[in-house]
Amino acid sequence: MSVFTKVSPHQVSLWLENYAVGELVEMSGIAAGIENTNYFVTTSQGEFVLTLFERLTAAELGFYLNLMAHLAHHGIPCPAPVADRQSALLGALAGKPATLVTRLSGAPISRPTAQNCEAVGAMLAQMHLAGRSYAGTQENPRGANWWRETAPKVTAFLDPSRAALLASELEFQFGQRAESLPRGPIHADLFRDNVLFESAGEAPRLRGVLDFYFAGVDTLLFDVAVTINDWCIDDRGEIDASRAQALLGAYGRRREFSPSEHEAWPAMLRAAALRFWLSRLDDFYCPRPGELTHAHDPEHFRRILELRRTKVCPLR
Amino acid sequence: MSVFTKVSPHQVSLWLENYAVGELVEMSGIAAGIENTNYFVTTSQGEFVLTLFERLTAAELGFYLNLMAHLAHHGIPCPAPVADRQSALLGALAGKPATLVTRLSGAPISRPTAQNCEAVGAMLAQMHLAGRSYAGTQENPRGANWWRETAPKVTAFLDPSRAALLASELEFQFGQRAESLPRGPIHADLFRDNVLFESAGEAPRLRGVLDFYFAGVDTLLFDVAVTINDWCIDDRGEIDASRAQALLGAYGRRREFSPSEHEAWPAMLRAAALRFWLSRLDDFYCPRPGELTHAHDPEHFRRILELRRTKVCPLR
Question: Is the pLDDT of residue A277 over 70?
Fold first, then answer.
């Protein structure tokens, strides 16, 4: 159960008086979520999610909440932060930064089909296109600077072969040039559990994209690589060609990949694997004090990184 | 069938390329609607309504679309205009100003209960409170200036008793002072067919408020009076006390009525009846060229006006 901060219905009722969303009907804690405390909140006017932020500060949250508002305003089915009576997207509750967002329907799927991957690719391209007009500039918080800080911390815990792999990959990645690649706000964490689907007749419908709290401005291709490395792999971590083609094809029809992106693709799939290997190593060996979550196995992304170093998947 | 301007799926598909809402899956014309052409549009990402404006100009539409965006952003369940890739809320299609808005669930109800009226009162107060931070300033397009223009046009068609009633009521209304009444953006047309309800268990849930194309800045109390005159009347046009109390009570708990509003209430109920008697007379006797709609019977609001002149309903 990931409700770190308990708030009572009475506290929430009072807090909602600063909004135009009606009165509290019922609320319940949400078990999922690693970084924040979330409650489903039903009011007389609709269904919302209340998020209390445990890690991020009000200053950092501006980029995320305004990005979600921007994307929702452009028709992307992401949670839309609701403005309060002073038109602020961020408030405070129980001493934590807090926000109310619209609740989306649908549920995550654990075993995606090529059809699901096609929908995800289409959505990702639409999100990148809609993001172009967003003014926020915060860089990817898990980008190269963060790799540089984190690698020395975790290397001490690694056996020689893994330490060598990490050092070799970092050296390779720092030799890459990304200046010519299209950039913009990216989700940067578009894993299966952050996308909601509903079945409407025979066709699955993508109904929601969640959890923008690792978003930042970076190369759009990095976002595609993160997504492929989760949505289009088999049990061993190998890329499944038919799902990858479905995702990349749907993306490419909406935003054509540039020649420099085709060239950068193999290195980018490695960078996307490296980023999650590093963060999982960090969560595993250097948990923050009081952290309650179960760290994911870092080996999953070590294996994916090894596979991407030896085998190339085309960007189409 | 109120589809005045026909557009093909091919036209809509091309038009949607300027949005981040996915590809057209299907579309169908909407029969309801007097002033605009509306289509339900299903895309790979969601459900929308495409509106082509037959009467309003791009210049006038800015106030309405930005108001709807403002209210939706504050959690009011009204259609949210979707921004295109240039972040514009208004485009053009088939030579008409056109917009894409989110589609709401639920359906209008023709015989409201006190519970429905309570929900409408709560929503109206929330809308007025959320509207306070809206910057648009367009005045109510069917306010006193419009009465002044319209009355002479229709008086020629009226029998002496009705002409006398109209003259008498206008004289009375022009003698009223509204300076001390709270003002803000009002819906100004919150009739039963502009509110969507869904049944969730035993309680009806208000799911949508539609059709802001008569909105404007005016006294908030006028909006309350328009709403009471439609939601809380019996078959003869008399105010039903239990429904009126449910609506006014729910409203007043969220935004307390001021002493000047209590004083102005009887005249405001008459003003709200006059406004719709006048517009129905105008639609009936002076239809615009090419107008295809069935004009409503003006007598309905003539009777309501007569009733409000003789019998006072308390503002609570």
Answer: yes
